[in-house]
Every structure is written in C-alpha cells, then in structure tokens.
Design brief:
The chain is built from 15 helices and 16 strands. It is of the alpha+beta class. The protein has 3 domains: 293 residues, no CATH class; 113 residues, no CATH class; 58 residues, Arc Repressor Mutant, subunit A.
Length: 481
Amino acid sequence: MIWEAVIGIEVHVELATRSKMFCGCAVDFGGEPNRHICPTCLGLPGALPVANRTAIEWIAKIGLALNCRVVPQSVFHRKNYFYADLPKNYQISQFDHPVCIDGSLDIVVDGETVTVGIERAHMEEDTGKSVHVGEGGRIHAATETLLDFNRSGVPLVEIVSKPDIRSAEQARAYAQEIRAVVAELGVSDAKLEEGSIRFDANVSVRHKGDPELGVKVEVKNMNSFRSLERAVAYEIERQVETLEAGGELFQETRHWDEAAGVTHGMRTKEGSSDYRYFTEPDLVPMVFDDAWMEALRASLPELPAARRTRFREMGLESAMAVILSDADLDIRTLFDEAVAAGADPRTAAVWATGEVTGWLRREARDLEDSGLNGRHLAALLALVGDGTLSASGAKDVLDGVARSEGSPAEVAAARNLVQVSDTAVIGEAVEAVLAANPDAVERYRDGEVKIVGFLVGQVMRHTQGRADPKVVHELLADRLA
C-alpha cells in the first residue's frame, strides 16, 4: 500500500506585551523564579481578570497577516484540566468563538507552492513553567520538579492549521514561515530556544486516496525546526510500520526525545469534551468594529512572502530573494536604499548579504553604528563598475566607509586604492616584470600557458594591487605574443 501522511501544526506564540494577559504583572523572561506573580495570575480566590487590549490587537494582526477573518464578536472560555503548572486548575482560553478563523499560508517546498489552511487563531494565557531537576532536564529522568509561575498568565496565541501538510519537509517549511510572519509583525521575539514560539504536530497516516483520516497522534517537545522535521518523519515511519505489522494506533500525546531520535508515549490524548469548556463568567464578550480592523490591516508591515516576490520581480534569483528576505531589517533597508540610489539589485544583494554582513559580524557592530548607508553602497558599486576600484580594493573601501572615514570616493583616494587603467603606466610594470622573470617567459613560450597567472600576480604586486587586471591581461597577452 502507498501511505499518505496527514499533518496539522499547532503553534503557540508568546506575545511580547509589557504586562500579562489578565493582570498587570510584568512579562519578564529569564528573571528570578516566582517574582512576577499576583493573586490573578495565581488564581487566588476573589481575583478578577481584565483583558489586555494590546494582546487582543496583536492577535488580530496575526490573523490578518495569515489571511484570516477576524470575527465581529469573540468570547473567552474556561478550559478545565489539572496539572501542576496550572494554578487555577483551568486555563482562560477560547473555544467556539475564537478571534480569527479561516486563514491560509503559502509555503514553498522543492519549488512547489503548497497552501496550508489556518483553522483558527485564538487567545489564551500561558501556564507556569515546570523545571525538571535531574539528568538532562527531562521529565522521564527527573528526581523532582520545581514550578516557576512567572510565565503563568503571559498572553499566548495558538494558531491551529488545517491537516493540509503531507510531509516532514512541509511541516518544517510551514513552521519557519509562521515564525517569519510573527517576527516581522514584531508581536513576539519568536525565539524557539526560549520557548516564546512552540510547535506541536498532529500526525496521522492513511492509505493514499482514502477520504477517512487516520488515528491522530500529537507530538510535543520539539524546540527547533530540525527537531520538528525529525520528529514528524520518525512518527510517520513509526505509524506506517505499526499498521503494516498488524498493530493498532490510538490517540495519544507523545514526547520527542531529541537525543534518541524517537517519540515516547506520554498520555492518552484528550478530546474537547474532556476539557468541559464553558464561557468565562468574569470576562465580557469582545466586539470588534470594521474601522478598528481596517486600521490594524493598514498597519501591517511588508510580510515575508510579499517581500520575496518583490525581490524576485527586481531580478533576484529565488535563493537570493529568500536569503535577503530573511536578513535583518537594517540589511534589507540598506539594500532598498542602494537600489533606489541606482545600484544593480543583484549586485547590491550580494554585497549586502555578503561583504557588509560579514564586516558587521567581524566587528560585532550594528549597521546604525557604522558610517555605511545605502547611498554609500551604491556609490561603491559604481566605482567597481566603472573600473575605478578593483574587487579587492572595494572591500578595503567598504571597511573605510564603515569606519566613518568618508564617502567611497574619499576613502579610495585616501587609502590610495584608485585603480590604474593607464596603459602606459601598466605597460612599464609589464616590461619590468617580464625582464625580471625570463624563465617564466620561456615556460610560457614552451606551451605552459597557465604561467601567465603568475606574471599577472607579479604585475599586480609591482603596482601595489592598483592596476586594472583586465588591462594587465591584455598587455601581457600582446607582449608575450
């Protein structure tokens, strides 16, 4: 039989608001445990929640960026379950009236565009953090578990995809694109290593063409895109092998073990009825008008997919469009300014993502702390294009401009890097090199053509690297002939 994977991804995004979802406690990651807590986020008797307006605006922006419909009226529910890191024994979440529904996101895998439907994006509060003490910090090897409630009540957006993903590679591409969108909106730092964006995968398999879905297994504890891809691939293989061996699958939650590269069963997966949802009595319904939503839509930045399309339309190859789109905002701005100042887009993209980014990393500096801007980059590339600067000389000029020594032309002159194209001057250097290397000349005339590279290098050294290499090659070829 030919098997087909059916995968849906749940993405949890912690919003970077100043205060928590339903109280005024500060959102502070990495602080001393249990210092940013109050009766409301601990669920103590008599404490009442108040919704965070900024968090509601931000989930609506996420929904709009994912082509969702923001519903006119939304309500909160209580999701009842019992776990140590849930102090109230229920979570304020949403059930049948989420903020955003019916969206979509396009991803590209192996040159093919796949549209993944977005079922919903709803607002909830995060739980506390369980710290497992023991070998590896994993729950199965822990000797004890400590609880930190600083995270309890942090605004959390859950984005639920439709089961439109068919491979581990598509799952990874979807997760990467979701993270790129969230980061571009600026509503979260979206750091996987800190847990501010987390992914759970719902995986099942079925015979290809079968309209019925298979038994769904939820996989958790994937803290990188690589982990997500590996975990989904393993789970697909495990389920197929189990079914082909005559075994039976059951709905459960499984834990991804990164070191072993396998999933382990954790618990039987709950259904919605197990959570006994009911409307949160302490919060009123939220009503959104069209003017508010249109104002949010107008505030959206250029999103990654649109930016990649724009770069391709400017003439960049798809791979470079992706690299530049994923670059830091200051690098993208530098590129756009350089093109606006007349630079060739492809050349500017190569320099912005290559030499400029490399210089900033070596110097551990931000672009805004350097003397370089888009006009300077365009001027620098123009000097290379008209032969005033060699490729190596241009790198030295970039260094000088970035160190605020002046414009590209000023730095080139001050550092004596202006390329010499005068045939008379270069001709003198060629004659001097040929006279000093008669053996090389004889080897060339005996058929060792590659020795010309040595002679070109000697001429460049003689002129301190300032000679135009093209002119050097032409004069050497004429003289040797």
